[in-house]
Specification:
Length: 138
């Protein structure tokens, strides 16, 4: 019997329209059915060779916009369509770990916060950089 390696959960969220969404430190995002909590989709590095996410630390979802943004240790943002369960686009956002992501629905933007004390502002529909604000004080 092959043992499955269990990884630390980095974030968990219940979204009424989608179900339970869980991210783990080994780069996995899992979607579970809202009622039965049976696994309905999982993404991992083997599925996303061109958009690798080795260590997911944060994500945010906008049901209104139909987008999920993930961020991790390598500084990459990956957009996932939580309804079609598919990767939309990936972009190198920071040169360090992304500590937190927010999907700002009113402005259709993503805000990313990097470990290097930088804040990124991104167009959520195209994942294009609008602005990076850096705090150079040490």
């Amino acid at each position: 019997m092959k043992s499955e390696r269990v990884s630390e959960i980095t974030e968990i969220r219940y979204i009424r329209d989608i179900g339970l969404v869980v991210s783990t430190f080994n780069g996995t995002i899992k979607f579970f059915e809202a009622i039965s909590f049976s696994e309905k989709w999982v993404t991992n590095n083997k599925m996303r060779k061109e958009n690798q996410h080795t260590n997911i630390t944060t994500f945010d979802i906008s049901v209104k916009m139909g987008v999920m943004a993930t961020g991790g240790v390598e500084g990459r943002i990956i957009l996932i369509d939580p309804y079609a369960l598919d990767v939309i686009k990936a972009e190198k956002a920071h040169s360090c770990e992304i500590l937190k992501l927010y999907v700002y629905e009113e402005q259709k933007q993503i805000i990313s916060i990097g470990q290097d004390r930088s804040i990124g502002l991104w167009d959520a529909s195209r994942l294009e950089k609008i602005e990076i604000i850096k705090d150079d004080r040490i």
